[in-house]
Amino acid sequence: MANDIVLETEGLTKEFAGFVAVRDVNLRVERGTIHALIGPNGAGKTTCFNLLTKFLSPTQGRIVYKGNDITGLRPADVARLGLVRSFQISAVFPHLTVLENVRIALQRKRGGSFDFWRSKRVLDALNARALSLIADVGLASFAGWKAVELPYGRKRALEIATTLALDPEMLLLDEPTAGMGHEDIERVTALIRTVAADRTVLMVEHNLSVVANLSHRITVLTRGRILAEGDYETVSANPEVREAYMGVGHA
User: Fold this and answer.
1) Which residue in 79, 84, 90 sits closest to 158, CA to CA?
2) Which ranges in the chain belong to alpha helices (H)?
3) Which one has a higher pLDDT value, 40 or 34?
4) Are 37 and 158 in the same domain?
5) What's the alpha-carbon Rg for the chain, to the nearest Å?
6) pLDDT at residue 67 in the model
7) Helices (DSSP H) in 127-230: which residue ranges?
């Protein structure tokens, strides 16, 4: 299991008009782990995430998922393979209910077009699975609420539920606790731990206490390059990481 690499990059590089945002990144994510990608602002984390999910194409290098080269695939093709990204800005339908949002996501998993015009009976067939997913993310009492009415942390839980509706094998989380208060951070951290029980998770996260609590392995980026890798204890003790990420000199 230790050598079971589910996602790997080789020499991943992205250049924008002469500026190199990601330079020669060799990333390896083991199956069944929570792997965090951290670094100071401008380190290349978001660009790297966009490359992995095919919203950007690399200038050089390649991306391998479950042994298959996915470098040339489109975002939708990558998602169909089981590599699914949950967006930093909530991507739900604000004026539909929690149940309706998850039901639509389940239709995406099934393939074909959305059934807005189909009979209510056809859509109700998806209710059992939708309600199960809603309960899994702690939203059972909010099923009838419109998404726009949800508190921020609950909205992020809904977004994770709609992502889980696609039944991903690997989940990419883009700053899952950004903008949250302490209570919401604890709730979403517990949710990530739960959904990671039978999935691989790669996340970009600024909150170091979240990273420390959740991550099996951490990759630190700075100026587009990998500066260090390891568990939290190893990475946080690295003087270069302390200087680059936390602005701390010698301890």
Assistant:
1) 90
2) 45-52, 75-80, 98-110, 120-124, 127-136, 152-164, 182-195, 208-214, 232-236, 239-246
3) 34
4) no
5) 19
6) 92
7) 127-136, 152-164, 182-195, 208-214
As a whole number of angstroms, the longest Cα–Cα distance in the chain is 66
- Of the listed ranges 5-19, 116-130, 210-224, the one predicted with least confidence: 116-130
Average pLDDT on 129-143 reads 94
Pair 180, 152 in one domain: no
Only one residue has tokens 């500066």, namely 227
In CATH, what number is assigned to the domain containing residue 38?
3.40.50.300
First-to-last CA distance in the chain?
36
3-state SS assignment for residue 251 = coil
Distances (CA, A) of 37 to 27, 138, 188, 220, 251: 10, 26, 18, 6, 24
Domain containing 5 equals 1-82+172-251
Average pLDDT over residues 145-159: 92
Report the domain count for the chain.
Answer: 2
Question: What DSSP state is assigned to residue 59?
Answer: S
- The pLDDT-based confidence of 251 (bands split at 50, 70, 90) is very low
- Helices and strands (DSSP H and E) totals, the chain: 10, 11
Nearest to 85 by CA among 195, 193, 168, 190: 168
Provide φ and ψ at 151, rounded to 5°: -60, 155
Is the per-residue pLDDT at 118 higher than 70? Answer: no
Cα–Cα distance measured from residue 210 to residue 19, given in angstroms and rounded to the nearest whole number = 31
Note whether 4 and 72 are same-domain residues.
Answer: yes
SS3 206: coil
